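## retry 2 of 3
previous attempt timed out at serialization; input unchanged, resubmitting
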Amino acid sequence: MLRKLCCVILLIIQRDTESTQVIGGSRTVVQGEDVDLSCRLIETDEELEQITWQKSTQEEKQNHNFMLISPNGVTNFIALNGLKGRVQFIGNPSENLGSIRITAVRLLDEGTFTCIFTIFPSGAYYTEISLTVIVPPVVSVTVDVHPVIGEDEVVLATCVAAGAKPQAEVKAANQQQVQCVVNQSALTTERSYNYTINIDYPPQSVNITLSEASKATVFLCVADGNPQPNYTWSRVVQPWPGSSVRAEGDKLHLLSLSSELNGLYVCEASNPYGRATGSLYVHTSSGTQVIGGSRTVVQGEDVDLSCRLIETTEELEEITWQKSTLEETQNHNFLLIYHNGVTNFIAPNGLKGRVQFIGNPSENLGSIRITAARLLDEGTFTCIFTIFPSGAYYTEIYLTVIVPPVVSVTVDVHPVIGEDEVVLATCVAAGAKPQAEVKWISSTFGSLLRTVTNSTQHANGTTTVLSYLLGVPTRAANQQQVQCVVNQSALTTERSYNYTINIDYPPQSVNITLSEASKATVFLCVADGNPQPNYTWSRVVQPWPGSSVRAEGDKLHLLSLSSELNGLYVCEASNPYGRATGSLYVHTSSETSAACWVLLVVILCLIVTAAALVWYWRKYGQFLWNSIMANHQFQAPPQVEEDEPGTSRF
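## retry succeeded, writing output
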């Protein structure tokens, strides 16, 4: 009977609660976004009584309950304090899943959230979830006061990354056209903000040139200054020549070519920071001439070659165009235009279908347009007007064709981690005319790098530039961002090409952790390596435990928790450059804890003692301690009579 009773007691108290726990994990969220706070009670089959959520946030430091969930999923909101209308239960009590969702997270929501599961008979189990709220910066690039040219250091630009949490990292890149680069954990990627440095300075030099865009004789006054200068024309010594000349901003229009225009004209360019002047001496005569001007065009674009016959009233007979180009250096005619506008193409030699007359013989305008200019079109074009009776007048127009570079950023061989300097990236600006300028921007990492630049001249006049970025391939260099910056006259603006340095290295260390994202017991094997390692699981000494365990890439699924799983498991991470291992010792047991054993011994001793006392009472009719007390009662010792003096006993 006693043995059966002991067995019943053993079954009742043989319950391992040491492995029962609530799992969760800290979360980080961007302000304004939603976040799920996940928690789950594992390793128990006891009855769920309720799930309680507590919080201690920046809004209210005192920890307090704000939500109760009953086993049937009914929720009760208590003192939400800022979470009203923004929190909902998304868990499942039947699966011991107590997760909640907070929408439109505020900075005041940051703090500690406690998920408490109360089960019977064990009581409460909880986990604390730290919620971190990060705030992206509001970025602006500007300058308070426009800097003026000088020799003292001043503020050229100010980049403000305001209201960020945690603090944003701000750095500058490039010169003149600068970039404020902002990086912060609330931003999905590093952000660049372009800003053009604006330096105010007085007009530097004044150049006066003949305008080719106008039918009339127009001179342009051009000065470099910031802000843009204002222009004023004047005539030295002599008075302004009435209606024969018109000044219009930076332009001087000569409306009639006569000797009354002769003289020295001055163009003054001025802005708030200073002034500069340039002069033009005008001398007109009855000399007949053809005017034009050199042109530059980007390969593939169209270009107009303008020419005009001036200072004549003689009859136009024809306009002839000649060329001497890279395609055919021998000068030759390729186009005739008659006085009535009819054109006749003569051996266009590469210009067929790409040249058209856009002038007007009645205005002595002989301009042509070349479409889709090629590099081979570069050379000298001659515009010849033949008039009667004077004969031929001509001008030479030199056409320069420039070619933008074809840019690529790459690396021939992926660098492998080591101690020797290697090429980390190569920026190629190929086939440019003129040669492109190539440089690297690598922020704070740049102090560990150096560049080597080579160029190759091609037979067609183009140049290829190769700029190598060299450094020691380390893990710290892996995934660093660099920029190849290319500048060339055929490009409208300086171009930047981003590149991420990629360093290959073997797996370094292997960590095995318990996955909190899975309902089942899943261990994750994590190793840092490039390229990403492959993972292989094995069991040391013992065979693989059949269907109880499933290896799936970097995951080890324990499908049932039994003693057959016990043993040492090894995860090997490998890539083409090496391998590394980590180990996991699994031990599952149904034995009672030490505390349970002590409690069992105490209870058994009490039961045995009680049973013995009952048996003794039934047999002797009194308790054991009554008999013991009776046997130990004290008796008075017998008295000894003393003999009277003078007598003796025999």
